[in-house]
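hiii, so i know i said id send this last week but things got crazy w the move. better late than never?? heres the sequnce for the chain we talked about at the cafe, plus the structure i predicted for it. fair warning i was half asleep when i ran it
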Amino acid sequence: MLSGSVVMVASHPLPALAATAISITLLIIHTRRRPDGYVPMTTIRSTRFQTAACLTLALSAGYFTLLFVIPQLLTTQPALREAGAR
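okay and structure toks below
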């Protein structure tokens, strides 16, 4: 659900942000119920892990935004298409 919400950022930003918030909340609840879950709690609490996770999310969101926005701009903005052809 989390990766799907990142894909939706470009076309539907508000639902994507809501889906991201729900996903993160569910992940936090799961992690607290099962501390032996996916990643050890000490790793999740480390600043290094949190920084890497935030950076990865930001880069992924930027990538998917460009992936969807640029083709849409090229089809809706004829001036951009003509400038690129020169």
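btw The chain has a mean pLDDT of 80. thought thatd interest u
miss u guys!!
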